[in-house]
Amino acid sequence: VLSHNLCTVLNVPHDPVALEEHFRDDDEGPVSNQGYMPYLNKFILEKVQGNFDKVEFNRMCWTLCAKKNLSKSPLLISDEDAFKVWVIFNFLSEDKYPLIIVPEEIEYLLKKLTEAMGAGWQQEQFDHYKIALNTSREGLSAWDLIDLIGSGQFSKGMDRQTVSMAINEVFNELILDVLKQGYMLKKGHKRKNWTERWFVLKPNIISYYVSEDLKDKKGDIILDGNCCVEALPDKDGKKCLFLIKCLDKSFEISASDKKKKQEWIQAIQTTVNLLKAGSPPPHKEARQKRKELRQKLLAEQEELERQMKELQMANENKQRELETVRKQLEAAAARAAEEEKKRLQTQVELQDRFSLELEREKMVRQKMEEQVAQKSSELEQYLQRVRELEEMYKQLQEALEDEKQARQDEETVRKLQARLLEEESAKRAELEKWHLEQQQTIQMTEAEKQELENQRMIKEQALQVAMQQLEQLELERKEALEQYEEVKKKLEMAANNTKSWKDKVAHHEGLIRLIEPGSKNPHLITNWGPAAFTEAELEQREKNWKGKKATSE
Fold first, then answer.
1. Helix (H, G, I), strand (E, B) or coil at 176
2. Where do the domains of the chain lie?
3. To the nearest 10°, the Cα dihedral for 29, 33, 35, 36?
4. Most Cβ neighbours (<10 Å): which of 48, 253, 273, 343?
5. Helices (runs of H) and strands (runs of E) counted in the chain
6. What is the pLDDT of residues 237-277, one digit of tens each?
7. What does CATH list as the number for 180-279?
8. Is 538 exposed, middle or buried (0-12, 13-18, 19+ CB in 10 A)?
9. Rounded alpha-carbon distances, angstroms, from residue 497 to 9, 387, 421
10. Which residues contact 410 (CB under 8 A, 6 or more apart)?
């Protein structure tokens, strides 16, 4: 209901689908997680174009909040007047929440009301009220302002009707932008007769009605920067005449007296000048100036407070500096007295110290002689250590030679073992070949079997001979492995000796740089690992095997 009424007052199309979507039911009940304000801003206020009746909008807002917040105590003003005071409060309040009206704006409003009632302004009374207000809070809320005006504290001696008329006049000026209003005679454009109308002057228009209740509007005079107003001489029995010239039409108007005529001419001319300059209405411009003045005074006050704090801090710093200087002077005086006392004591001590220094010099000379003797002994020890290191270096060279010879022996054994392994591999391949040939001969005809049997016997004999040779090669390979193990042990012993000599050299401060063997030559590699004999031995074994094979055939 609230959303629909707001859309109606603000001339915004109501969107029930968006409302249902925003406030749809969920597991926690039909309450929006975002609340009503996001919906109000997005779906209503953002669509407002400005072509709505602000009084009706204010009246709706007043209906929502007045019953809850309006004071229950009897007031000297009606509910309608309270509504107008509430609207005036919204216009004059500060632009921050919660809304309050500051004492300066309260004084401005009370002065306007007093002037409208035709009474005198009581500045002293308001000053006392302002002092009491400043001690308790910064300003008044809308309901406090209604209570203040409705209590009659600043309108004593005035009846309810006078107060109501004053409130209505101020409401018209500040809210409805009514700059001037009153009865005057207007000359018709067609019938040329003079008719009394109620004229209302606003910042860009003059509206005229049948009466001041504003129910029957008869027309408007649109004002712009091109309009002008000028006085006319009396004619046709009409006095106090003036003419309003617009682009498309002119209007002749007769005021009730010269004073009213001059006031209307001046008010209309002022309005036209404001339109030319593009300035806001006088009361809005005055409010903006008061606000800027308050901000300027507040900034000056803050600047003054800041300067006072800086002066206070500077004063405290000066006080601390003076206290520090005083303490430094006292400390300097104490130090001077102490230094004088020490000087006298030092003079006495120097005499005693001189005699002690002589004794100490004798002892130092004696110690230096002892140190010279000790250094001579250390030099002899150092020379002895150098000789020991030279001897160790010679022994280390011998150990390195032994290690080198062991590595050469190991290389020879590796080559021999590799050649034996290759011979063994060739024998195995030949045996496999003979075995395949035997299987082929079995499949021959019976006539060839006898001949093949003889050949098989010969080949079996050759195979036995080859097996014997293979066994001989296996024995030789085992012997080569034993030789390799012996050489390996010798190599390990040589490496251990080398390591012990390295440790000794490192223990004697590293005066000798160790000589390590170079990189090894690449070894022969067989299907069973590194070879245990050299290439020369392998070639020799291959020649012997071929000779034995030729002999057996």
1. coil
2. 53-156, 180-279, 385-420
3. -70
4. 253
5. 13, 9
6. 888 899 999 888 889 999 989 999 999 999 999 889 888 88
7. 2.30.29.30
8. buried
9. 111, 20, 33
10. 484, 487, 488, 491
